[in-house]
Design brief:
Number of strands: 0
Protein name: Multidrug effflux MFS transporter
Strand content: under 5%
Shape: globular
Family: Belongs to the major facilitator superfamily. Bcr/CmlA family.
Radius of gyration: 21 Å
CATH architecture: Up-down Bundle
Structural class: mainly alpha
Keywords: Cell membrane, Membrane, Transmembrane, Transmembrane helix, Transport
Low-confidence stretches: 1-38
Largest sheet: none
Subcellular location: Cell membrane
Domain Major facilitator superfamily (MFS) profile: 51-439
Length: 445
């Protein structure tokens, strides 16, 4: 057993809470000597109802970041018209959010390894709520951009803490199963967020979207306060307190597999985000979609994410190595992105874009849970720091690279396809020369 997987002898129980999800005592079952034979990790002794609580609440945490980033995508044309700026300037507000999100994760992750999961989560999410209110009241594009950076920083805690909590509780194949649930949400949320945003624009203006995000953040804090307890044992907090942030980062960056899969995850997310950041202009201005039709397109694409994540997780639970799934999907991503570019040049029109795009998004769904499993499996002691690096690379690389699409132009699908193909090619190189899939050990049961 990994030292970080040892459960506390008997954590103090908290008062029972009555809530809409479940009546929950607020304690994580301890592993007693008699149960240690059959229960290796603390989460193995959670009841089905308690696991449901964690899936729902941690899923809501995971979705906070993608919703913050993507819900206002359908409002890009309205923002451009109101502030009288270019599409590239509007996309910079998106870039700022993602940079703030990446930096926030680098701070929140190591902090949560030292002081526990709940405190950083509550403080960062409170900052997110305040920033959403500021964005809703912004008088110009400069104030909006500044608040978007702070929103990203505040939303950073959700994904990092949720992933770290799952690693605190589970290992081996159960870890795969739980991470697959979070990967489904983290992969689905960026695609569903514009759908929700497009529907909100039917009843509110773009400022109303930020008021809704503020309310969502408040609900997340309430759910955490009622249903989620500290999952990092006190003994592990003491160990982290004696180690420096630099030591935890060295443990991660000296692991060749972690470095490789983290970069592959960042490249894959950047390819997906090239689509997310350019699609509002491409489909609404080039192909003439309304905001609602644009949202419907995202809803259809979300089915691909669901299929990819769930199939990939099922394959891993049946013994297929996640590295081999990544080996297949990276090749598929290159082929599909190239297909989009070729069909765009040859004038294939709308269907020549949306059909291969759906399969590209599905291949991304196959990849996401594999990245999380390979990255976290051997880093229980620094799970928060590991999750922060994954998130920072995802959103940091996407924030820096995806605006290239706006610079190259959104008059066709070719620039988007070029970024997608490039990131997929880089992923192939990283897999075979850094991760080296034949050297990756099998997952424990």
């Amino acid at each position: 057993m990994h030292p970080s997987d040892r459960a506390p002898v008997r954590p103090p129980r908290r008062p029972t809470f009555e809530g809409p999800l479940v009546t929950y005592t607020g304690s994580i079952p301890a592993i007693t000597p008699d149960a240690a034979v059959s229960h290796t990790h603390p989460g193995d002794r959670l009841t089905a109802r308690q696991r449901l609580v964690y899936i729902v609440v941690l899923g809501a945490l995971t979705a906070l970041g993608p919703f913050t980033i993507d819900t206002y995508l359908p409002a890009f044309p309205a923002l451009q018209s109101e502030f009288d700026v270019s599409p590239a300037v509007i996309q910079l507000t998106l870039t700022g959010t993602m940079v703030g999100f990446g930096l926030g994760q680098l701070i929140v992750g190591p902090w949560s390894d030292k002081v526990g999961r709940r405190l950083p989560l509550m403080l960062a999410t409170s900052m997110h709520i305040a920033s959403c209110i500021g964005a809703a009241l912004s008088p110009d594009i400069y104030w909006l951009g500044a608040f978007r950076v702070l929103m990203g920083f505040g939303a950073a805690a959700g994904g990092v803490v949720a992933m770290a909590m799952v690693r605190d509780l589970f290992g081996g194949r159960p870890l795969v199963k739980m991470l697959s649930r979070l990967a489904l949400i983290s992969g689905l949320a960026p695609v569903l967020a514009p759908v929700i945003g497009s529907q909100l624009l039917r009843v509110v203006d773009w400022r109303g979207i930020f008021w809704v995000l503020a309310a969502y953040g408040a609900l997340v804090i309430a759910a955490v306060a009622l249903f989620i307890v500290e999952t990092l044992p006190a003994v592990d907090r003491r160990v982290a307190g004696h180690s420096t942030v630099g030591q935890r980062y060295r443990a991660l960056f000296s692991d060749r597999v972690f470095v490789g899969v983290a970069l592959i995850g960042g490249m894959t997310f950047t390819g997906l985000f090239a689509y997310l950041s350019s699609s509002s202009f491409l489909f609404q201005e080039v192909y003439g979609f309304t905001a609602q039709q644009f949202g419907l397109l995202f809803a259809v694409n979300s089915v691909g994410i669901i299929i990819g994540v769930q199939t990939s997780s099922l394959l891993m639970r049946r013994g297929v190595g996640p590295q081999w799934i990544i080996a297949t999907t990276t090749i598929a991503l290159v082929c599909l992105a190239t297909t989009i570019g070729v069909l765009s040049v040859t004038g294939a029109g709308l269907w020549g874009t949306i059909v291969p795009l759906w399969f590209f998004i599905t291949a991304c769904g196959f990849t996401f849970p594999c990245i999380q499993v390979l990255a976290l499996a051997n880093h229980g002691k620094e799970a928060g720091t590991a999750a922060s690096v994954l998130g920072a690379l995802n959103f940091g690389l996407a924030g820096v690279l995806s605006p290239i699409v706006g610079v190259l132009g959104v008059g066709s699908a070719l620039p988007m396809a070029g970024v997608m193909a490039t990131t997929a090619l880089i992923s192939i190189v990283l897999l075979w020369f850094v991760v080296r899939p034949r050297t990756v050990p099998a997952l424990a049961h």
